[in-house]
Amino acid sequence: MNGDREHDRLADDLGLLAEETTRLLDTAQSLTDPSAASLCEGWSRGHVATHLARNAEAIGRLADWAVTGTPHEMYPGGTEGRDREIEAGARRGVDTLAEDLADTAAELAPRLAALAGPLAADEVELRGGYLLPSTRLPFTRLREVVYHHVDLDAGFSFADVDGDLLCRFVDDAVSRLELGRHPPALRLLSDEGDSWAVGDATTSVSGTRAGLLLWLARRIPDGVRVQDGELPSLPRGA
Q1: Is it the case that residue 113 has pLDDT exceeding 70?
Q2: Is 222 within a domain?
C-alpha cells in the first residue's frame, strides 16, 4: 500500500509540475525587463530565469542517477559552478531566457516521468551533500518552479497557488525549519484554519497561507501578524 501511495503522489506531483511550468512559461514570455529586481536578494529577473533553466538540467541529472544508478553531480563544479552559470546567463534578452526555460523544462519532463518505473538508486545527493529520496525529485522541482515564479515579481504570487499545494509547501518549510540547530519556537496559524508548530511553539504568527509562505520562504513579513511582541527572525537557508 505504501508503494501505491508513493506512486500516486509521484503522479500527482508530475501533473502539478506540468501545470505550474506552463504558468511559469506564460509569465516568462510576457517579461519586458529582465534586468528588473526580483524578490531574491541580489538577483534580477534574468538571474531567476537562468537559475530555473539550470536547475531543470540539475534535477534531470539527478533523475538520470536514480534510474541508471550512475551518480551525477547536481551542479558540475558545485556551488561555484552553479553561480558562474547563473551570472553568465542572467543578462540575456527576454526571448532567449524564455526559450531556455521552455527547452530545459521540455527536456526534464520525460526524465522525471521515468521515476515511475524501476529505480536503481532510491536516494540521490543534492548540492551540499543532502540526500533526497529519488521519488521526491518532482516535488523538489515543483517547489523551485513555484517559488521562483513568485520571485520574478511579475504578477504571480503565492495567492495564485492552489490551497492544498500551499499547505504542502508550508509543511515542507516547517520541516526544514525544524532541521536547524536552533529552530524558532513558532505556532503558525492560517486564516484558512490550518495550524503548524515549530519547536516549543511559544510565539503565534498568523496570516493567510500565502502570507505565511511568503514569510517562511522569502522572509517578507507583509502578510503575517504576530500575536504578542515582535516577529521572530528566521534562520537563513531554512
Answers
A1: yes
A2: yes
Residue 237 falls within a domain, yes or no?
no
Q: Over 9-68, what HEC string results?
A: HHHHHHHHHHHHHHHHHHHHHHCCCCCCECCCCCCEHHHHHHHHHHHHHHHHHHHHHHHH
Block residue for cell numbers 524578490: 39
Of 156, 187, 203, which residue constitutes the final position of a domain?
A: 156
Is residue 134 located within the same domain as residue 67?
yes
**What value does the mean pLDDT take over residues 163-177?**
96
Distance CA 169, CA 147 (A): 10
Average pLDDT over residues 212-234: 92
Length of the chain, please? 238
Question: In whole angstroms, how far apart are CA 101 and each of 51, 141, 158?
Answer: 9, 13, 20
What is the amino acid identity at position 235?
P
What is the average pLDDT across 175-184? 85
In angstroms and rounded to an integer, the radius of gyration of the C-alpha atoms of the chain is: 18
Residue 79 belongs to domain spanning: 2-156
- On whether residue 233 sits in a domain, the answer given is no
